[in-house]
Amino acid sequence: MAQQTSSCQYVPTDQQRIGLPLINGENLSHTFHAHQDITAVNTVDFGITEGKITAIIGESGSGKSTLLKLIYGLLEPSSGEVRYRGWLIPTRKDKLIPGHPAMKLVSQGFDDLNLYAKVWDNIASQLPNTDLALKESKTRETLDRLKILHLAQQRVADLSGGEKQRVAIARALVNEPEVLLMDEPFNQVDAAFRDALQQDMRQIVEDTGLTILLVSHDPTEVLAMADELIVMKDARIIEQGSPTKLYYEPTHSYTAQLLAKSNILSPDQATSLGISSKQTIGIHQEDVDFKENPQGTFLVKDIRFRGFYEELVLNNEQLTLHAILHPLADISIGSKVTVDIKRYVTFE
Ligand code: ADP
Ligand code: MG
Question: What residues does the ABC transporter domain cover (predicted)?
Fold first, then answer.
């Protein structure tokens, strides 16, 4: 997979720009002209590295799907540009069939699948009949990569959500695109299957050099799967970096809340914990240490069972803190506790 397309020039006036990341956006905007104008992507700059998994993460309505459609060429930039291997992405005005030829898009739902056909035929039908032996071997190889070879003779309609998702991905990959675009692809997959599928996707990236660009609003999904994160808020990219970097050293409180459900405190609230800061700070839940103590100033207001840990809501007159209790211990609502902050992040 991921053979280099030597040329991807669809826009006659275009000149290839050298030295850019695989996909590169500059000052890229898109405004929808509905009954009012909505700028869904607002002057964003980004670079996407080849052979990696990049996730675009943000709240619903932040512009993730619009950005993905700009990258695929389904939408026209209102201003700025987006390039693939240095060439402008062709859009509907440049190209009859929408979608960049080196990319494939897997969206939510299974609209592209023929539910009443067999798994095998859903994949094989994507390949030409000019070389039947190749058609057979490529179909087999792709089913094998997605670990659904044993389902080849089943109707798609009879499969579970997770299996259908694997068929949809196999169908997108059988023609060996260089980039796979996925819009909230794991929504309909049970948590237990999701983890296995994500790890299999990582393996495919490693084995083939495929580049994946994934849209998600689920932090647990992207933290485990992505090499690189792009955080979107209100149509803008507010930061880009590795999952560990953005988890431990976010520069925006939005990122800290999104990835770590971090406690966000004003400078005054921070002072009441003995932390002096001129800026807003974030304290991850796992960094709030607490001890039962009759002299403590915090009260356990609520205890939320989360399985192997509990989330405690602690408050005093100034603030509320969420903290993690792990391993589980005997502590009850109404207990007084002292609080010790192990680590905090300062925002810009
Ligand atoms: P996300 O994928 O992050 O949920 P979207 O990119 O779908 O966000 O949407 C971003 C904004 O653009 C939202 O305010 C949404 O209502 C608006 N929007 C998306 N698609 C259209 C459209 N076809 N026409 C008008 N507005 C749209
Ligand atoms: Mg969306």
Answer: 23-259
* Nearest bound ligand to the CA of residue 62: 1
pTM for this predicted structure: 0.92
pLDDT digits (tens, 9 = 90+) for 88-105: 999 888 887 889 999 999
Q: How far is CA 51 from each of CA 178, 211, 347, rounded to the nearest angstrom?
A: 9, 4, 32
* Superfamily covering domain 23-102+177-256: P-loop containing nucleotide triphosphate hydrolases (3.40.50.300)
Mutate to test the pocket of ligand 1, among 66, 71, 108, 230 (most ligand atoms within 8 A of CB): 66
* 8 Å CB contact between 175 and 104: yes
Average pLDDT over residues 180-206: 88
Residues enclosing ligand 1, CB less than 6 A?
Answer: 32, 34, 38, 40, 58, 60-66
Mean pLDDT across the stretch 237-261? 96
Task: Give me 275's structure tokens.
Answer: 């932390």
What tens digit of pLDDT does each residue of 3-27 get? Answer: 444 456 788 888 999 999 999 999 9
Burial of 79 (0-12, 13-18, 19+ CB in 10 A): exposed
Q: How far is CA 122 from the centre of its chain?
A: 27
> Is there a contact between 167 and 156 (Cβ–Cβ < 8 Å)?
yes
Q: Which residue's alpha carbon is at the smallest distance from atom 20 of ligand 1? A: 66
d(CA 310, CA 290): 13
Integer Cα distance of 92 and 94 in angstroms: 5
With beta carbons less than 8 A apart as the criterion, state whether 57 and 222 touch: yes
A 10 A CB-CB count for 21 gives: 17
Parse the chain into domains and list their residue ranges: 23-102+177-256, 265-346
CATH of domain 265-346: 2.40.50.140
Please report which ligand is nearest the Cα atom of 237.
Answer: 1
